[in-house]
Every structure is written in C-alpha cells, then in structure tokens.
Amino acid sequence: MALVRAEGRDEAQRRHAQVLAGVWLGLACLLRQECALLWLVWIVVAPREQAERRGLAQWLPKGAGITLLALVSWSVVRWFLFGRLLPISYSVKALPMAVDLTYGLDYLLGDLTLLGSGLLALAAVLLVLGTSARPVDRVIGWGFLVYALYVVAVGGDFIAWSRFFVPAVPLGLWSAAVLVQRWQIKPLALGLLCVVLQWPAALPDQDLRSRGARFLDHQVFEERWSLIGSWVGEHAPEGTRLGTSPIGAIAWYSGIEVLDLLGLVNGHSLGLEPDLERVKVKGHHRSATNWMLEEHPHWILLGNGMRVAGRLEINPWEVDLYQSQKFQDDYRRIEIDLGQGPPLDLFVRRDLPDPERIR
After folding, report:
1. Is the same domain home to 200 and 224?
2. Which three-class secondary structure state does DSSP give residue 151?
3. What pTM was estimated for this model as a whole?
4. Dist CA 119 CA 131 (whole Å)
5. Domain of 53?
6. Which residue, 145, 250, 266, 317, has most beta carbons within 10 Å?
7. Would 232 be classed as within a structural domain?
8. How many whole angstroms separate alpha carbon 325 and alpha carbon 265?
9. C-alpha count within 13 angstroms, C-beta hemisphere, residue 316
10. What are phi and psi of 344, to 5 degrees?
11. Residue 218 phi/psi, 5° resolution?
12. What is the pLDDT of residues 160-201, one digit of tens each?
C-alpha cells in the first residue's frame, strides 16, 4: 500500500514510500514468517519493472534491505534459541505433497463463502496477465498469488475460518478493485458473478455456516480452555507438569509447564510417520506418544478437555497414548468440578494425591 501511494509522485516521494514499504513488510515478517514470500515477490518482480536501475538496485529494490535485515535477525535468534532457521511447526505439520494439496484445496473451497480467496486469486491472475497493469499492481497481484499458493501447498489449516489467508487478503482485494475499476463492472453484474462462483458451498462436505457462527464454535473451546487453565493454575502444586494437545490458552492461564503431545513447540514428533488413516485434522497427524510417556507428566488432559454427549471422547491422535499399557498402569481418571460447564476428565499419576474439588 505504501508503494501504491507513491505512484505518480516525484522521485523523492517514491524513494520514501519504498523505504516505508520495507519497514512495514519487515514488521510483518517478524509477526508472520510467511510474509517473507511477499518480500521475495518484491525483489523478483519489482526490479524487472525498473530496467534502468543498475548495481545492487537490480536485485534489492530500495527499502527491501530493511525487510531482509528483519528476516535475518529473527532467523539468527531462532537458531540460537531452538537450533532451527524455520519454526518447528512447519516440519511437524508437513505431509506428503499430494495429501497436503488435497487439504489445501479443501481449505480453499471452504474459504469461498468466507473471504473468497479463490475469487481474489482469479482477480490477481487476470491482473498480472493484463498488459496495462502498473508495476506496483503486478507486485501486489503476484504477492497475493504466491501467498495463496503457499497456503494451499502446505495444506491450509484445521480451523475453518480462513485465518491463514488473512495476511494477504488486502492484496487480493486491491487486485479485484483494480479490475472492477478498469473494466467498469456494474455492481449488480459483479454480485451475480460472485453468487455463481459460490457453487462449492453446495457440496455436501462444505460448512455453510457464517464466519460468525464458526467463530462462536471456536470461542466455546477457547472459553473452556481458559477455564481449565485458570483452575490448573490455582490448584496444581508447584512443579506440576501437564501433558495435553491444546496447549495455548491452558498454558497461558495456568502458568505451569505444559508438555505438547503434538510436538508443535518442542519438536519431539519430528521424523515420525504421519497417521493418515485415523487422523483427519490438519496439523494433528503426528503425536509424540513415546516421549510423553517417558516424560511421565503429573497430569494428562485428553479429549480437548471437553465432553461430547456427556462423555469423554479420546481424539484420534491421542488413541495410542490412551491405549498404551504404561498409560493405563500409571494413570487414573478423576472428574474435576470446574464450577461451570461439564466436569473435567483429568488423568493423574497413581503415585500422586487427588487434586482438590473432585466431583
């Protein structure tokens, strides 16, 4: 957007806008590493639109060096802290390419009724293939396409409200807006086109609920996990370690050490074969079962801390842990009264006393 503002202005204003673009993109890369894709598009596409430039400027547009500095700095920090250049979750979630593409395309189809990223991608394709597009519009169009293709290639996300597409949506909206303006499309015609292109929503396996309704579903989990985390923080003895797969809110509100069964933060499921037969939730195909049993946490939480139809349901990625003889020998299940909602099923080591407020 900073580059767009510089269009048609003098050279000094354009240079200032490019530096500003580098600053904003650098901040974006610190927040979401995937934004490095937008930086790559910038350095590949922009120099070709500025053939008169020489030297380093042919490879790094003015301002792009700021983003490179942010990327290198964060990569160095990650290397020293975790011994890796990329987040562990990339490798843990990775599946065979054909499987990831299947998940990614399903994610794209499900998004048509939410953000419409597929339609925005079509607009971006038409924009970059057009002969009258401005250089800055080509950068924006290619940026959205590369980002959207990346999301599809890695298999999308297990949460059904398109959060992985969100960082690049403004670029897609800009591409669509440029086409609407250039082609002088009437609002009614545009609306009819969008309705026609919603056909995937009629497929039997697509969720037709609104984005708001899906968010409310997710909010139920967040509220439950926040409640569990608060209870654990109040009642867990000092030094207690909890093993579970939903780690975010529980770890945040409890303040205790939480062991991640999926290995998304500790990497202990790296190298394991994904369970493609039983597990159908993206990002949950590997479980560090043996590592969890070796760590022998004081408490273990299964089934997302929820109950379905009044009973605990073990998640597919937890089955091996739950059915292992060591788990059955070392842990017992108790019910905890959280003060609201259904009781919590907590697995406690047999050599430890029961927590307070048992139902």
Report:
1. no
2. helix
3. 0.81
4. 20
5. 1-86
6. 250
7. yes
8. 26
9. 13
10. -95, 130
11. -65, -35
12. 667 888 888 888 888 888 888 887 777 667 667 666 665 555
